[in-house]
Design a protein that fits this description.
Arc Repressor Mutant, subunit A, 11 helices, mainly alpha, 217 residues, 2 domains, Tetracycline Repressor, domain 2, elongated
Length: 217
């Protein structure tokens, strides 16, 4: 058990170091030697967990999957909004998430499968929109899979713009603006009136998740 805990800690140390280097350098310019120096681990320890730079990058990309689930909301549109604003909050506060997003958008990352996050976020959005549709929360013309793709693509552009202009400082405002512009064409007005899309919603959801009791096994 102690050995397993140490292995988990070592893997996390390597991922955190890799995230820092990938975020600063991009995929192509990042080197294993710099990641080793930043992590302070042996080459053997790194290769035990990640046999290649590509595996390391995919590990960073997938790390953001761990904190996806939002507690179920009676209003599925609120749950969708909470998923979006929580991701925006984590982009501002979690280096691993920032690095994962940079890698997913890095067109110079030859040989790296960058499709997984887009498929995952589209699937999450589609599922929530289908549930919202079943509850009568959506306009009649909405096709959930199409709308999910529009929201994922729009968010990707908004966060890239925020990163370039203010290093994510204005991301909550930009995401709220995106939602204010898109949701009225998606959601029934009476439902939308009760949805919280304020800029403080992301930190609120983050704190809610932090204060949840740990799951018992």
């Amino acid at each position: 058990m102690v050995k397993q805990d140490r292995a988990i800690r070592t893997r996390q140390t390597i991922l955190t170091a890799a995230a820092k280097v990938f975020e600063e350098r991009g995929y192509q310019a990042a080197t294993i030697s710099e990641i080793l120096t930043t992590a302070g681990v042996t080459k053997g320890a790194l290769y035990f967990h990640f046999p290649s730079k590509e595996d390391l990058a995919e590990g960073v990309i997938h790390e953001q999957d761990h904190d996806l689930p939002i507690p179920p909301r009676a209003c599925r549109i609120q749950q969708l909004v909470d998923t979006v604003v929580l991701h925006a909050h984590r982009l501002r506060t979690d280096p691993l998430v920032r690095a994962g997003v940079r890698l997913a958008l890095d067109q110079q990352a030859q040989g790296l499968d960058r499709s997984a996050p887009f498929h995952r976020w589209s699937n999450v959005g589609t599922t929530l929109l289908q549930q919202a549709q079943a509850q009568g929360e959506l306009m009649p013309h909405i096709v959930p899979a199409e709308t999910a793709d529009v929201l994922v693509g729009s968010f990707a552009g908004i966060q890239a713009m925020s990163q370039a202009l203010t290093n994510y400082q204005d991301l909550p405002h930009r995401v709220t603006t995106l939602l204010r512009h898109t949701l009225p064409s998606i959601v029934v007005p009476s439902v939308l009136a009760a949805v919280d899309i304020t800029e403080s919603r992301g930190p609120h959801v983050h704190n809610e998740l932090q204060n949840q009791p740990a799951p018992t096994h």
